[in-house]
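From the thread on structure requests for the teaching lab: each student submitted one protein with a one-line request. Submission from student K.M.:

"Model GAF domain-containing protein from Shewanella cyperi, C-alpha cells only."
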Amino acid sequence: MKSEFYQSLNRQLAALLEGDDDMVSAMANFSAMLNSQLTELNWVGFYIRRGDELVLGPFQGKVACNRIPWGKGVCGTAAALDSTQRVADVHQFDGHIACDSASNSEIVIPVRKLGQVVAVLDIDSPVFDRFDEADQLGLEQAVRVLENTLFG
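Reply posted by the TA:
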C-alpha cells in the first residue's frame, strides 16, 4: 500500500536528514533517497528561489534547465501559486518547459521557510499519469520532513 510505503520512506528521510541544517547537503541526500526508492522516474531534484526565478539545485538525473522564471512552467507555477502541481501529461500543460523530452508527467511541491516559498521539489517521469493522490500526499509529507529539518 502506498501510504505505508510513504510512511516508511518519510521515517528514513527523517533519520537521514537528522542534524543536517545545510540546505544543499540535505537536498542532495533527499533527492538521492527519493531517486533510489521511487520507481518510474527520470529526474528528481530541487529548484531554489533566487529573486524572481528558480535556479537549479541538487538533483538526480539528466542535465536540467539552469533557470526557470517565476510563474513559468510547472515549477514556476507551483512556486508562484504556492501549491503542489500534479500533471498527468506535461505536454498538455500550458507553458510547459521541456528540460527533458522524455518526461511525460510531473509533480512539483513547494518548499517553505516561514510561510514563504524558498524552493520546489520537482519529480519527472517518462510514464504518463505516474503520480496519484497517494503520491502527492506522501511527497508533500516528505517535503514537510525536509522543512522541519532545515527550518525547524
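TA comment: The chain has four helices and six strands. Residues 2-145 form a domain with the Beta-Lactamase fold (CATH 3.30.450.40).
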